[in-house]
């Protein structure tokens, strides 16, 4: 039985309070500097979600294709792009299955896209590492690629079993569980409002720096830089994320 995925219609991700325009601009500034992209370049946004990076890139004069397996995310991305007056192309597709005649000048893959697990219990997707191989097939030789994932050590060390946000009438409860054998983090989001309760589920693998480097090398990428955030800080135990800048081997 398929559970309501975190990226389904009505997801709290669509109204995440921390995903501000200021944060988006900081991230895009970093991505463009690291990939040395210039307006007019064609950029692939893998796991684009509701399109916040794709839309900002399009605002700045880039040609963008955003892909995401979630119909709800693609619908939201198209609506938000229309409101912003830009026209990136959004396609509902899994990164590991994406086929195109395009050759992209650069690619990005952010948040928890790498490591996502399908919540269809009848056909669980153990991992989606093949998406890195697929990205390598659609990049130009020497093309830059930026990958962001949560850092396993930081997530495990700071993990809270539960969180509660809101008031007595409108609130969100979050339950978390980590399996150290599989390195899978499971999160259940319970959204409660008067007369309505919804649940969303998110499951993904956690990785350390060495694992990410191996995955990229196996997919034909050369790792250029590894950071702990979008301000080029080094990775430490206090870094919530791993941000890797790589280049497709020529």
Overall geometric form = globular
Distance between the termini: 44 Å
In total, the number of domains comes to 1
Ranges with pLDDT <50 over ≥5 residues?
A: none
**How many strands?**
11
Output the CATH class name.
Alpha Beta
**CATH fold topology:** Rossmann fold
Strand content: 25-35%
Main sheet attributes: strand count, strand direction, barrel closure: 7 strands, mixed
Mean pLDDT comes to 92
The name of the CATH architecture is 3-Layer(aba) Sandwich
> How many whole angstroms does the radius of gyration measure?
18 Å
Q: Give the name of the CATH superfamily.
A: Vaccinia Virus protein VP39
Structural class: alpha/beta
Helical amount: 25-40%
H/E element sequence: HEHEHEEHEHEEEEHEE
Which strand order does the major sheet show?
A: 3-2-1-4-5-11-10
Output the number of helix runs.
6
Pfam family, one: Methyltransf_25
Keywords: Methyltransferase, S-adenosyl-L-methionine, Transferase
Domain Methyltransferase: 43-143
InterPro entries: Methyltransf_25, SAM-dependent_MTases_sf
């Amino acid at each position: 039985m398929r559970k309501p995925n975190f990226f389904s219609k009505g997801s709290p991700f669509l109204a995440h309070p921390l995903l501000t325009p200021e944060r988006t601009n900081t991230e895009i500034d970093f991505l463009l500097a690291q990939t040395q992209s210039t307006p007019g370049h064609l950029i692939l946004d893998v796991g684009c979600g509701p399109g916040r990076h794709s839309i900002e890139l399009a605002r700045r004069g880039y040609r963008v294709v955003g892909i995401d397996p979630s119909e709800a995310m693609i619908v939201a991305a198209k609506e938000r792009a229309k409101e912003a007056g830009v026209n990136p192309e959004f396609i509902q597709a899994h990164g590991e299955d994406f086929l195109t005649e395009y050759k992209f000048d650069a690619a990005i893959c952010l948040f928890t896209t790498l490591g996502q697990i399908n919540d269809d219990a009848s056909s669980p997707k153990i991992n989606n590492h093949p998406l890195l191989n697929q990205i390598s097939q659609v990049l130009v030789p020497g093309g830059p690629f930026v990958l962001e994932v949560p850092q396993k050590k930081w997530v495990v060390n700071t993990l809270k079993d539960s969180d509660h946000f809101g008031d007595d009438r409108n609130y969100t409860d979050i339950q978390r569980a980590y399996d150290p054998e599989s390195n899978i983090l499971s999160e259940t989001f319970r959204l409660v409002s008067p007369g309505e309760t919804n649940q969303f589920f998110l499951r993904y693998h956690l990785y350390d720096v060495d694992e990410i480097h191996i995955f990229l090398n196996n997919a034909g990428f050369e790792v250029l830089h590894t950071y702990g955030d979008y301000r080029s800080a080094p990775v430490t135990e206090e870094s919530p994320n791993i941000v890797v800048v790589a280049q497709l081997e020529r």
